[in-house]
Write a structure and sequence with these properties.
This protein is mostly beta strands and 473 residues long. Helix content is 5%, strand content 40%. Strands 24-25-28-31-34-36-38-40-45 form a 9-stranded parallel sheet, covered by helices on one side. Strands 27, 30, 33, 35, 37, 39, 41, 44 and 46 form a 9-stranded parallel sheet that branches. Strands 1, 10, 13, 18, 19, 20 and 23 form a 7-stranded antiparallel sheet that branches.
Length: 473
């Protein structure tokens, strides 16, 4: 594909654990993937009178199955549009009623494990996005349940099968990547099981990961992407019987950290076990270090963690120094630090962090809440700060001397220290907040550096006393 240009997304998939350093080209899901996405999940046609209706999300970001069941009633509900949450408006559609996949059958929402899924019958049902072009390297990721194991099936491909860049079955219970070469990465699956699938197309360095376990690298060929055809080779043949809950495509080969972040996040949400991840349950207590409070043991520097909303059960409290690989705190969930936490990868906070100690992050930070205590970015590679967060004491100590990019305005209420690395203000301001007449945040000694390539600047607040005894900023 000569001249193919990777397309950058407008919405960060923060609810999937990613930052805006990892833009998506398309993103379809039965859950909300981006807190910036204000649209609906899918459009559904009911069998009783062929009326269609958009179905959105609950306040927690789950598919609104109550609205779905109320609309469909005791009949069937078929998906006509699966909305793209990336911000690129590349919706997957199907206008032919006989080819629309099912979301509700006889009044029952179709599910894989515990979450809703769009079911393709393997006979005639398929959906396709609008066309877009991506050269290798790129990543195609999905949450897929294999409902049959026949040969010569296409699970995902380019729109219209042109060119053929697919995930398919050549033999029973095996799925392979294909981009012009039949020697592509291959994995074995169990019929009826749901998987987190990641296809990384990158020439001879390509691999296929099932539930976080990667195949050996192999060369599937060099063809690129031209949109996505779901559950068919070209929209009219080689259909597959699958249940799909989520599809994301990225215009680059994901880093190991980013790949594990989204895989572990998907595993936690869809109740799929992935190595290297664990989910908080709070079954026994609030003790972070108690293995009985986690689905797969206590997190370590190589094991990622997801903290969902387990209310009314307890949320984790760190009482002894702790480590974690990547960590995602979901909406409605909380984490309390009474001792230090070192995050070896990325931190995504959509909930609440009560920091009474030191929170250190070696990867990217995504947060729009207020975090007290001391927050330290101590990576050895480039880092980014996403979200309009407020921080008490914020230290940048990138020992590799790399750039730390600010993607959104933030607020400091006490002290900003730049010990190492280069702070790139980009187009975002840092506000040095004032909490009283005697207290305005300060910048400590700068051993690193600051660059101003865009409109981002420092803004200094100051509370002053007025003659009438009141105060103003």
């Amino acid at each position: 594909m000569v001249g193919a240009v990777p397309v950058q997304a407008q919405n960060t998939l923060d609810k999937a654990g990613l930052t805006n350093a990892t833009p998506a080209t398309v993103a379809y899901s039965v859950r909300q993937l981006s807190s910036s996405y204000a649209g609906k999940a899918l459009q559904v046609r009911r069998s009783s009178d062929n009326t269609t209706q958009d179905i959105g999300f609950t306040a927690n970001g789950d598919l609104d199955t109550s609205a779905l069941k109320t609309f469909v009633g005791s009949g069937n509900g078929y998906v006509t549009t699966w909305y793209d949450q990336s911000g690129n408006a590349r919706n997957a559609t199907q206008t032919n009623t006989s080819q629309q996949p099912a979301l509700v059958l006889s009044g029952v929402v179709q599910r894989a494990n515990t979450q809703p899924a769009v079911v393709f019958d393997g006979v005639s049902q398929t959906m396709a996005s609008s066309t877009f072009s991506l050269n290798q390297a790129f990543t195609r990721n999905s949450v897929t349940q294999f409902l049959s194991n026949n040969t010569t099936l296409h699970y995902y491909n380019n729109v219209g099968g042109n060119p053929n860049t697919g995930l398919m079955s050549f033999t029973n219970n095996k799925t392979s990547m294909y981009a012009g070469n039949t020697g592509g990465p291959t994995q074995t699956f169990t019929t009826g099981s749901q998987y987190v699938l990641t296809e990384e197309f990158n020439g001879a360095n390509s691999f296929l990961a099932l539930n976080g376990t990667s195949s050996p690298t192999a060369n599937p060929g060099t063809t690129g992407l031209n949109g996505i055809q779901i559950a068919s080779y070209n929209g009219s043949s080689y259909y597959s019987n699958i249940a799909v809950s989520e599809i994301t495509i990225f215009p680059q080969a994901l880093s190991t950290s980013d790949r594990q972040t989204i895989e572990n996040n998907q595993g936690a949400y869809y109740s799929i076990s992935t190595p290297g991840s664990t989910t908080w349950t709070g079954t026994l207590s609030s003790d972070w270090s108690n293995t009985g409070n986690w689905s797969n043991g206590v997190p370590t520097a190589t094991i990622s963690a997801t903290i969902p909303n387990v209310s009314p059960l307890a949320f984790p409290i760190i009482g002894a120094a702790a480590q974690v690989n990547n960590i995602t705190i979901n909406s409605g969930a909380s984490l309390t630090l009474n001792n230090s936490l070192q995050v070896a990868g990325n931190l995504v906070n959509n909930g609440t962090i009560t920091n009474n100690n030191t929170l250190s992050i070696a990867g990217n930070l995504s947060n729009s809440s207020s975090i007290g205590g001391t927050v330290v970015l101590n990576g050895t590679a480039a880092q980014s700060i996403t979200g309009t967060g407020t921080y008490n004491s914020f230290t940048l100590n990138n020992s590799g001397g790399n750039i730390i990019t600010l993607n959104n305005p933030i607020r400091i209420t006490q002290l900003l220290t730049i010990s190492a690395g280069t702070l790139n203000l980009n187009n975002s301001d840092i506000t040095l907040g004032s909490t009283s007449i005697a207290n305005t945040a300060q910048i400590g000694p700068v051993s690193g550096s600051i660059i101003y390539p865009g409109t981002g600047r420092f803004v200094v607040e100051r509370i002053i006393a007025k003659a009438d005894g009141t105060q103003s900023v």
